[in-house]
Every structure is written in structure tokens, then in C-alpha cells.
Known about the structure:
α6 (122-130) links the parallel β3 (113-118) and β4 (134-139). This protein is α/β, with parallel strands linked by helices. It has 14 helices and 15 strands. The structure holds pyridoxal-5'-phosphate.
Amino acid sequence: MSFDEPIDRRGTHCVKWDMMEKLYGVSPQDGLAMWVADMEFKPPQCVQDSVQAMVDHGVYGYFGDDSRYKAAIQWWMATRHNWHVTPESIFTTHGLVNGTAMCIDAFTAPGDGVVLFTPVYHAFARVIAAAGRKVVECELVKTSGRYEMDFAAYDAQMTGAETMVVLCSPHNPGGRVWTRDELQAVADFAKRHDLILVSDEIHHDLVFPGHTHIPMTAIDGISDRLVMMTATTKTFNIAGSHVGNVIIEDTELRARFAQRMAALGLTPNSFGLFMATAAYTPDGAAWVDELVQYLDQNRRVFDDAVNGIPGLKSMPLEATYLSWVDFSGTGMSMEEFTQRVQTDARIAVNLGPTFGTGGADFLRFNIAAPRAVVQDAVDRLRRAFADLQ
Ligand SMILES: Cc1ncc(COP(=O)(O)O)c(C=O)c1O
């Protein structure tokens, strides 16, 4: 397949295009949707075929026997991430926002603090707050234009009321692939403060050449307090299937999680399971390799142009297709640069402050689109900031 193929998603109930006018005032008629984290690409043929086979059969009853599905997950994690997962450690949730919410429900109590390294994926704070827990923001530090962690500062912030930390690895929106030392430091921090560590690794397949994602399970001495989260949905652009995996090796934590899943009557939907089983295959893997190459070129086109506009600076993307652009060099207020992007350039993007403390000078651009769209976007940005050039 060609990632260059334009696909009109307007009027299909897709949130990215069909809600952009309502939420950002950018018309889908002449605007570009570069916000929500899904891609403008069709999934690989093996995934399409799995849905087609369901349609051809034509009966959509209850799903049973998830052994092939779990074997596919085991194969993927072993071959792509050198991580050996046991089938009994795998839970299937209604996606990973739900997975995060389930962890909060299973492992924390109302009023507890849940630590986030901000700015970070906005839904974490939303579910923590909605569950009556306290969001504890530990701000990432910008060092040489990229995010790092400062554990001396975070240690000083802890009050003893914190019971969980949620790590986004690789990091959305900063695009960091955390190093082994950084992951070890997160694990040590979790141990020091007696926190359950939830590692959301949904972006782990979308890593650019020169960087290697290390699963948190590869870090020493953390397995008794670790919850891993992965999914097919970002990797294969099937977010609407709403399936994710919460993977827990520790038997005591696993029992607590299983109890909450049972209490809430949660079981997965068959479309998501069929798609995931078809995706985690050699054909799916070959498609992901091509996808990453394509995204790598997109990030070059985007970065070269954006960083050529005085005052704009994109964080170097090590992973993810979400470019985090710093506008502070323009000297403009958030209101002004946002207006130029949304009203003048007519691009719908995510606003930095929604990602928590540290996001104020930023906008997040989704570059997982045909190259012509990315090119169009940077041309629009050049025009909208022409007076700076
Ligand atoms: C870090 C992270 N976790 C979870 C999600 C969403 O997961 P789901 O669609 O499975 O709920 C996203 C989507 O952008 C994300 O970036």
C-alpha cells in the first residue's frame, strides 16, 4: 500500500475531522486535522482481511478461546521487543485510557496521589481526577531542547500520599525514548516512594532509527510493583477497535486487577481481538517497518521547515508521530500563536496546556498523514509566520 494515498475521512464520525470545527473553529472543508493521535492511513491488508472475514461470515456472536490472540501478543513482544510475556499475565481492556483507569481503580484509593511526568498525554490527568485521586505533576526539564527527569526535585515534592506513578514510554508529547538509565531511575523512584509503576508503552512500535525502546520489564528489581500497558491500536491505526493490554507479571497485583475486571463485568469486543490477532503477525510487522520509514521522512520534512521559521522549534522526535513545537521564541502570547496556527494557517492542533504543567508554550502536531499534507501544513505555517522570516 502507499502511505501517500489521500483518504477523505470527513463525515465518517471520525473525531479528528468531524469534531475539529466544533472544538477548534477550523473548518474541515479547507483546514487540516493534525490533532487526535490517529493516522490518515489504512491499516495493513492482514488487518483489513480479518475484518472482511468476519463480515463474510456474517454472525457476530460472543468471542471465546483467546489462545491465538494471546499467542500473537507473545510473539510480537518476543520478536519486536525481546520481552517474554506469559499468557496468564495478559488482561484485555477497553483500550489504554480504560487500562489506566482500571489501574487507578484497582491499586489506589480515593484521595491518593498519582504522579505524572508533565507535560504528558492529557487523558491520564483526566481519569485520575475523575476517579477522585490527586494528580501530582512532576515537571520534566528541558535540557538541550529535549525532556529529561529531575528526581531530586521530584523526591522533594513527595508527601507520602502518593501510591502510583504513570510513565509514558516512549513519551507523548515529547517524543523521547527513555534510556535504560532513565528507566532505572524511574523504577528506583517508584521503589523509594512505594509507588505502583504503570508503564504505558502504547507508542513502543513507532520508534525512529537510532533509538531503541526498552520495555520497563527489562529493568531490574521492579517486577513486584510493575504494570505494563501495550496495544495494537496506535501501531496499526485501529484505535476505534478499543482494545488494549494490561500485562501484570506479579501474581498478587494480577489477582487485584482480575478482581476489579470481574467486578466491573469487563470483557473485550470481538472485532478488536480479531484485528489484534491479525496485526501481530509477520505481515503486520513488515507493514510497521515501512510505516516507520515513512514517518521518519515526514518528521524530516516537518522539522526542516518548522525549524526554519524563526521562533519555532520542534522537539527532536525519537518516537511517535506527534511533534511538539515550542513557540516561545516568537515572543508571542499563547493566544496569538494559536490564532495564527488555527485561524490563519487553518490547522487544528492540540494545545500545549492540556498536557499539564510545562505545556504552555507548545502546540502538538500529528504528522502521520500523506507527505503532501505535511508539506501543505508547513507551507501554511510559513505563510502564517511570514512576518518573522
Ligand atoms: C500514551 C497514550 N496512552 C493511551 C492512549 C489512548 O489509548 P486508547 O485509545 O487505547 O484508550 C494514547 C493516545 O494518544 C496515548 O498517547
